[in-house]
Write a structure and sequence with these properties.
Strand content: 5-15%
Distance between the termini: 56 Å
Order of helices and strands: EHEHEHEHHEHEEHEHEHHHHHH
Shape: globular
Largest sheet: 6 strands, parallel
Number of strands: 9
Length: 296
């Protein structure tokens, strides 16, 4: 019999599926629920168990992980008669790994405490590749004791694992992460268009840039997307649009100016408005190409 905690996993999307499978590989008993039948079949094929509802998934779980798109989805699976808080056992640990507003995390922790359920907000960075390779960066908010208890589970999912402070802190750091990533992708996209219009060998240029001070994880991860114009979603523009809304709103609340971030947020929004919301966020290149006179 495994001494590892029993895990309920809610949300089996681009990130949730490989992450839950990595827990199965690490020896965890994982019961999952999501809305898509094929994602449940994928989990069972990997050795997990499918549940027909949130209530069924969480009923016997020691740890509950949620990985859903945004605050409304977190609230939908957490609250109500069929939600996590009404059906999880007292003493369970709820780890929300979605990217949502800090206030949603603070409110969830308060509501869960009334039910005897502990909460960590623990959003991640690293995209689909990081989820598959189990090298995600995990930024957590919540009590130190709960973080320490969750650390072995986090170690099956990521490499950089840090508690950033009390409830909501993980989400605040994730918002800053998304600001940096978006601005970085935008800068890379502008450089790509500039290099191509100048007649430079793009592959060679990106190689040498990657080895210098301009190098970044974003450039390394997205270089092939730029070269091949392959915008298969690892992280969709729709979701980055949501995240830019979170960071600009949170920054306004605390009185922080984001002049470059505000511009990039508008560029992300315009790309989404032109029908590219389902593409990878490296498709910011398409927006720069349009502004530079190309038809894409």
């Amino acid at each position: 019999m495994s001494t590892l905690p029993k895990v309920a996993w809610i949300g089996l999307g681009i990130m949730g599926s490989p992450m839950s499978e990595n827990l199965v590989k690490a020896g965890y008993d994982v019961t999952g629920h999501t809305l898509e039948r094929e994602k449940l079949d994928r989990l069972t094929a990997a050795g997990g168990t499918a549940a027909a509802s949130v209530a069924e998934a969480v009923r016997d779980a020691d740890v509950i992980v949620t990985m859903v798109p945004a605050s409304p989805q977190v609230e939908a699976v957490a609250y109500g008669p069929d939600g996590i808080l009404e059906n999880a056992r007292r003493g369970a640990l709820l780890i929300d790994m979605s990217s949502i507003t800090p206030q949603t995390s603070v409110d969830l922790a308060a509501a869960a405490k009334e039910k005897g359920i502990r909460v960590l907000d623990a959003p991640v960075s690293g995209g689909e590749a990081g989820a598959i390779e189990a090298v995600l960066s995990i930024m957590a908010g919540g009590d130190q004791a709960d973080f320490d208890e969750a650390k072995p589970l986090f170690e099956a999912l990521g490499k950089t694992i840090v508690r950033c402070g009390p409830h909501g802190s993980g989400q605040t750091v994730k918002a800053a992460n998304q600001l940096i990533v978006a601005v970085n992708i935008q800068a890379c996209a502008e450089a790509v268009v500039f290099l191509e219009k100048s007649g430079v060998d793009l592959a060679a240029a990106l190689d040498v840039l990657g080895g210098g001070l301009a190098g970044s994880t974003v450039l390394a991860r997205k270089k092939d997307n730029f070269l091949k114009r392959d915008f298969t979603p690892g992280f969709r523009i729709d979701l980055h649009h949501k995240d830019m809304g979170i960071v600009t709103d949170a920054a306004r609340t605390v009185g922080a100016a984001l002049p470059v971030g505000a511009v990039v947020a508008q560029l992300v929004a315009s790309l989404r408005a032109q029908g590219d919301g389902g593409l990878d966020h490296s498709a910011l290149l398409r927006a720069v190409e349009r502004l530079s006179g190309a038809r894409v």
